[in-house]
Design a protein that fits this description.
Blueprint lengths: L8 H83 L3 H12 L4 E15 L10 E5 L6 E16 L2 H13 L3 E11 L8 E9 L7
Antiparallel strand pairs: 1-3, 2-3, 3-5, 4-5
Helix pairs in contact: 2-3
Length: 215
C-alpha cells in the first residue's frame, strides 16, 4: 500500500525557511553578543590605558625638558671652563715660575742681575685661527655664546752685569738655547774701567714661549 504525503509542499518549504531564518538569527545574535563584549572590552582597555599613556607622555616630556636643561648646563660648564683657562692665560699664570726656572739654569757666579722687567701684551683677534695656537686664548659668553680670542705675549728685558765679555756671552748663549725663550737679543753693553773692576754691564731682551698644555 502506497504512503500518501498529506502535508502540503508549501508548508514544508515555509518550515524549512523558518528554521533557516532561526539559525541565521541565532548566529547573528551570537555575533552581536560577541561584538558587544569585544566593544565593552575595548572601551575598558582604552579607559585603562589612556591614563597610563598620558602619564608616559608627561614623563617623556619631563625627561626631554631635563635633557635640554642638562645640555644647557653642560654648555655653560664648558664655557666657564674655557673662560677659567682664558683668565689664567690673561693673568699669566705660571709664567713667573717658568721664567725663574729659565734664569736659574742660565745664571752662574760670573753673571748677576741689576733689573728684570716683564711686560705682557694682549692683542684681540677678530678672526682667530683654528685650531688655536699656544699663544692664543679664547673666552665664551655664557649668555650669548659669542667668543673673543686674544693673542698673548710676554716680553722680558734684562739689565745685568758679568765679570767679563766671555761670561756675558755664555749667559746670553744659554738663554738663546733654552726652548722656553725666543727672540733673545743682545741690546747693548758697557765695560767699567780697570779701577772699577772692569766688569761688563749689558742689556738683553727675549720673549717667553707659550707651550700647549697637555689635556
Amino acid at each position: 500500500m502506497a504512503d500518501i504525503d498529506m502535508i502540503p509542499r508549501s508548508y514544508r518549504e515555509g518550515l524549512r525557511v523558518r528554521r533557516t531564518l532561526a539559525a541565521y538569527g541565532a548566529a547573528l545574535a551570537a555575533l552581536l553578543v560577541l561584538g558587544g563584549a569585544a566593544s565593552a572590552f575595548l572601551h575598558w582597555r582604552v579607559a585603562t590605558e589612556t591614563p597610563l599613556l598620558e602619564t608616559a607622555r608627561a614623563a617623556s616630556a619631563q625627561a626631554g625638558a631635563m635633557r635640554t636643561r642638562l645640555v644647557d648646563a653642560q654648555a655653560r660648564k664648558d664655557a666657564l671652563a674655557d673662560n677659567v683657562g682664558a683668565l689664567a692665560g690673561l693673568r699669566g699664570a705660571g709664567e713667573v715660575a717658568a721664567l725663574a726656572k729659565v734664569l736659574d739654569q742660565a745664571l752662574n757666579e760670573r753673571v748677576w742681575f741689576d733689573t728684570l722687567r716683564l711686560a705682557r701684551t694682549q692683542e684681540a683677534l677678530q678672526a682667530p685661527p683654528a685650531p688655536l695656537p699656544p699663544d692664543t686664548v679664547q673666552a665664551r659668553s655664557a649668555q650669548t655664546g659669542a667668543t673673543q680670542a686674544w693673542r698673548l705675549g710676554t716680553q722680558i728685558e734684562i739689565a745685568g752685569g758679568a765679570l767679563d765679555n766671555a761670561a756675558m756671552s755664555a749667559f746670553l748663549a744659554a738663554l738663546a738655547a733654552d726652548p722656553a725663550l725666543a727672540e733673545v737679543r743682545f741690546l747693548n753693553s758697557s765695560t767699567a774701567t780697570a779701577e772699577d773692576g772692569g766688569t761688563v754691564g749689558f742689556h738683553a731682551s727675549a720673549a717667553l714661549v707659550k707651550h700647549k698644555e697637555a689635556p
